[in-house]
Amino acid sequence: MEARKWAVASPLVVQDVAPTRCEHAGAAGGMLDVDGYPFCVGRVFASCEAVGERHTADREVFWASGACFFIRREAWELAGGFDGSLFAHMEEIDVCWRLKNQGLRVGCVGSVRVQHLGGGTLAVASPKKTYLNFRNNLIVMLKNRRGFWPTFMVRRMALDGLAAWKFLLGGEVRLFWAVGMAHASLYRRLFATLKVRRRLQRVAVSQEAPLVGWWPRSVVWHHFVRGAQTVWDLPNFLPGR
Questions:
Q1: Torsion sign (Cα): 112, 115, 121, 123
Q2: Is 233 helix (H, G, I), strand (E, B) or coil?
Q3: What gap in Å lies between CA 107 and CA 213, rounded to an integer?
Q4: pLDDT tens sequence across 209-238
C-alpha cells in the first residue's frame, strides 16, 4: 500500500466452498460500469471464474471488497466511515467512490487469498437481499457520480425496470416487487440524498478524478446480450495494474 499509494485494499476473495474459484463479493478486484452496476475481475454478475494467474496480480481497482476490507485510518476519517443506512450491501463501494472522488486510490492484493462464504447474511434468492442490492446501488450512484444526475438515474432505473420484468416473467413475483420497493425507497429519500450529493460534490478534488476501474460502457448489455462472461470479454476494458 505504501509503494502503490493505496488508501484502501482488499485481497483476492475466493469461495469458501470452492477455494479454486473467485467469489462473488469482490473476486480479484471490484469495478463499476457506466450505469453503476458493480462487477469484478473474476466475476461478472453470477459468472465466477476459476482462479488463474491473471487473478493473482496486484492491481488498482474501483472498489475493495467489504468481505475483507483494509483501509487507512486517515482515509476512513476523511470518508466519515460507512453510510449506516446502507445495510449489508454496497457500503464499501460507497466509501471507495467517495475517496476516489477526492483523489485517493484503491487496490486489490491478488497474492493474498481470503475464503468467503457468500450469502451468510441474506440468502442469494432473498427478496430482502434483492431490495437492498437495488436500493443501495441507486443511492450510492446518486450520491457519488458526477454529472447531470437526472440523465444517468433515469437510464439506470429503466434498466432496473427491465430486470424487474425479467424476474416477473421468470415467476419470481417477490423479486419483481422487491425492485419496485427499492425504487419507492429512493423516491422517499430523494431530497435527503441530493443534499448529501451536494455536500460531497463540494469536497471532490476535480471533475476528472482518477477513476481507475470505471468502465464507461454497459456491462449489462455486454453480458446479457453480447454474451461476455468475464472482464476479458469486455471490449476496451483494461483491468488495473
A1: positive
A2: helix
A3: 10
A4: 557 899 999 999 999 999 999 999 999 887
